[in-house]
Sequence to fold (1015 residues):
Amino acid sequence: MTPLTPLSLQVLLALADEDRHGYAIIKEIARQTPGQLQPGTGALYTAIQRLVDDRLIEISRRRPSAAEDDSRRRYYRLTTQGRAALAGETARLAELLAVARRKKVAVRFA
Amino acid sequence: MKTPRFYQYLLQLLPRHLRRNYGEEMEQVFAARLEESPDARSWLWINETASMATAGFRARIWDNLKLDLRAAWRAYGKNPAFAVLAFLMLSVGIGGAAAMYSMVNTWVFDPLPYPDPDKLTFLSSVDLKRGPPSMMTEMLVSPGDLADWRHDTSFDAMSAWSSAQFNLTGTGGSQLGQASLPAAFSPDSTSSGQSTAFDAPERLQGARVNANFFGLLGVTPVLGRDFLPEDDQPGAPRCVILTYEYWQGRFMGDPSLVGKTIGLDDEPAIVRGILPQHFQLPLLGPTRVFTPLALSVRDRADRTKRSLQVLARRRDGVSFAQARESLTGLGRSLSAHYPDNDGNVGVYVNTLAGEIGNHQGNEVDLAFFGLTIFVLLIVCSNIASLMLAKSVERQKEVAVRYALGATRARVIRQLLTEHSLIFLAGAAGSIAVAKFITEWISNNIPYESRAYLRNFAYIPLDSRGIIFAFLVALACGLIFGLAPALESSKTDLQGVLKEGAGRGSPSRRGRLLRDGLVGGEIALATVLLVCSALLLQSLKSIFAVNPGFQPQGLLSVNVGLPPKAYQDLDRATRTLETIGERVRSLAGVQHASIVEHVPYGNSASSLSFWIEGQADPLPGEVPHSRISGLSPGYFATMQIPVLAGRDFSDADDQHAPRVAVINDVFAERYWPHQNPLGRHIHLGTRDAAPAEVVGVVKAVKMFGLSDPPELQMYVPLRQRPVRQAYVVVRAAGLDAGAAIRLGSSVREALWSVDRNIPVPEMKGLPQAIEITYTSNRMATELLSWFTLLALVLAATGLYAMMAWSVTQRSREIGIRMALGAASMDILSTVLRRGVLVTAVGAALGLGGATLITQSLAIILPNVNPRDPATFAAVSGMLAVVALTACYLPARRASQMDPASALRHD
Fold:
């Protein structure tokens, strides 16, 4: 399997806590990475399609409450594989972070 | 809400399946974003457009390309022989074209390296009696005419120059120490006993110029200053500007030289400035020193002496055509005003770039570029036919792809990628080939000739050449790769798979296509062969021309006696004669004599003349003849045949009656079928004491082997004393180096007469002639190689096609033989197609060649562009090569064992 692109990782991360539709994913990504990553729909859906093809996410069968629901919207959710891939990628990043810390690379959190 | 239509267009960039699955949803998301942040609308649109374009490119092109490239790599890996062969052929084919492209760019198309070069214009007088204004009728300009031209308001400025040879001595007691002199032509010049003192006199090519010469060109000295108008006045202190290279070579780049005084023809001259590095005006040749013309007031109005060449800068807003119109009109009125001097004289106006191009032979360069394109096309069709041949072998692979759901477009794209890949690889390889060719060309041009070619004959292989190679490769890859790709993609799925391990038979259309390619290749090769053969003949015919003397074993030494020390011209003549005697007594010297102008010495004089006893010509139509003073024995030295009468003798001196020797052209023109001996000619003026014709000799070529026959006349040196002359030496041996080896002893002999005679320029005459024809000789060599390549390629193309078709038909042949066909029948069946393809291709090629050679006529002197012998010889040669290429596979087919042929699969 090809490695996760930064955008794919962001999509997985956006879906980690709840299922979201496309627009919500964009907003969640914007919230996760303040101002840094604002994907266009072209890039986003290319990534979504790839993730669906790789079975890391799927179209959710559950719908939100009727009040919020818009029948044309599709909700995406992480699959078990997707969650595992996200965990794996996060662990890799954590390791990287640990190495950076050991080497006294200045790491600051906002 | 409804999104603008533009979003729909953007969606079209995406692959269809993505659009189908998610398009609607994407639209909603984008609409929501627009609604949410109305302030950031334009940013959102830009971001969206970029995002769509990138996603579309990746999905549609890049991802597939990666797959296709991987597939192509595997395919070539399976068939490395083909890959290597194609790579080599393409490297040479594209490399040749890229090299010639760089050459024509540098020599023909690049703007001249001066500011605003389009405005630079070359002006010349022309002799209308010899034809319409063109390079062929150019004459030098008289100062009087130029003074009138200067009134033409189409031009901002005009500047004149006149080439000259100078004796240059150093600064005298300079602290610079031992700078060595530039190596003379002779390889042993440094080993001779000559002094390497800094002040040793040196004879140099230079030019006298108007003060505005460099300013007009837009060139500013890097050191010191330009000439000022006051430098260009009679009586002004002599001053010089040196080229950067000469300053580096002789004065070791000493910056303090500027402002110092050096010796120029024995007179002090102040060094005013140093020109920028690489300054060059190809019309001037290897000029190293410039000094103002400084014409006297009388000379400036003179219309009788033609000595100048003229450069001009057009005024802003005046087109070339307008300027030419205006100056030509002025020329007509000058003709009317001054019928004596300008009666038949017109004005020739050319762009400077055009004039340089005419002199360096742009047509030949362009013709070469065209011929390399032919070679490239032959290479491409060769490769395309090989690919077509392979396409049948690949039908199974293609069928499998279809079976797995690939669309035809997808399959074509994959094959096209594969084909283009080898072309691009060829382009990469071609760069090395192009580099080799361009360097070979530059390195093979002798030093003396380089200054006459733009950019000193150096051809840089720059980014344009490389881009050209890749674009050509891509275009050829797409064009020539498309046919085989289309052919391969057209596969009868069931048919192929059903046959199991068997091979499909080529489609009728595929066979036609391949025949077309091979036929086209033969046609191209025919054209190329015909053109090359004609060019080679033309070049050979130039070399075969008898120059009128025997150049082998001749050495010419340019001697310029310092004018101050030799103000007495009779003393100068005596000194030259003493030099001649000393040289004659040297070991290894057979003959030696003195002549004012030697052939290929780049100098000549002309004189008007009147024939006694014939009607005087109208003013303005007085004929001119080349004239040269010489010492007795010159004709023997040069081995110029004396046709009638006698050579001069020592008795023909300044006190004796005037005598002259004329050439056969002269005799034929003025005394046809009569004896010219004993007739009289007035030389220079109508009233001059007449000279008696005492001999007739054969005409010689003074400048180039293709010179038209001209009137030539010789007089005794003692009756036409000069300070500048040539010692011509005939070596005892005829071998190539014999004359050159005499160089140092000739120089010693010179110095034994007068230590102050400048270091002369030593030139073997064969070399001097050779230099004039360098480009032709190199053209001949290059052309021979390219032609050979084309022939080999056409032959291999034909062979490959035939061999392949025999393999393809082995089953059919086997069946036929099993049914009792004789091997002769098989042979003729197989041969028939090859012969037909060859015949059609050759016929088309010969037809095309007649059209093309017609337009090549200008660069094909002495050759009939439709020379039947050449056309016949080329057809014959092609027929032999093609038949051999067809025969070998055909014979193999006819000797096939039917059983094994049937078992072949």
